Amino acid sequence: MKVIAESTAAACLSVRELSVHYGGVQAVSSVGFTVEPGQSVGIIGANGAGKTSTLKALMGLVPRSGGSIRLGDKDLTRVRARDMVRHGIGYVPEGRHVFPGLPVEKNLLLGAYSRAWDKDTHRQLDEIYTLFPVLRDMRGRLAGALSGGQQQMLAIGRALMTRPRLLVLDEPSMGLSPKLVGTILDVLLRLREEGLSLLLVEQNAKLTFGATSHCVVMENGRVAMRGTSAQLSHDPRVREVYLGL
Q1: Cβ count within 10 A of residue 101
Q2: How confident is the model at residue 7 (pLDDT cuts 50, 70, 90)?
Q3: pTM
Q4: Does 196 fall in a domain?
Q5: pLDDT, tens digit, for every residue of 24-64?
Q6: d(Cα 48, Cα 35) in Å, to the nearest integer?
Q7: 236 CB-near residues (< 8 Å, 6+ apart)
Q8: CATH number, position 113
Q9: Which range of residues forms the domain containing residue 211?
Q10: Is 92 inside a domain boundary?
């Protein structure tokens, strides 16, 4: 059973000359990259490299001091963060940010807030439960009572309920056990096989290289290298200087 709605068409993400300043400090400087339809791209780099600032600027969660963002034929440069989902970008934030006082199922259904709830919504809910069976078992439990790994599954499921053309994930493995990291990798690979475009920021190099086809390496707020995940995973400079491997 497919998790991604068959009517959902992929679109190319194009980021050009993206810059971010915090006060007088430039955190991101003229960053550019693309995510082609159906492609999975990782952004990697050491702590403080500007990865999360880049993602938050893309989503409109921090002010951009320059640059442009397009998804397909839509210019999203001036689109507010709360409206990004309406244009086809699903977001899994760092730290999950589920609604702890609501049941699992209500959390998932809130992912579909931008469209009418109908039989198709509930069909998609069943598909999320197929992807994450543990969420089906806990559908009536408060999200705040879930483990960290279960909350991460819930955050991904909620983002998928938006029927995204692009799924953006910020540090999905943070705080998870190696076993749960493997579960997240399996899910990302399945989504990738189904043709969903992915953009992943992640400290876990094994997860990033395993889940993506291409990577952008950041250093001091700039793009330092780019290439296929297979190439970069074996590059001594990437392993030693940027990832500390």
Answers
A1: 10
A2: very low
A3: 0.90
A4: yes
A5: 899 999 999 999 999 999 999 888 899 999 999 999 999 99
A6: 23
A7: none
A8: 3.40.50.300
A9: 13-242
A10: yes
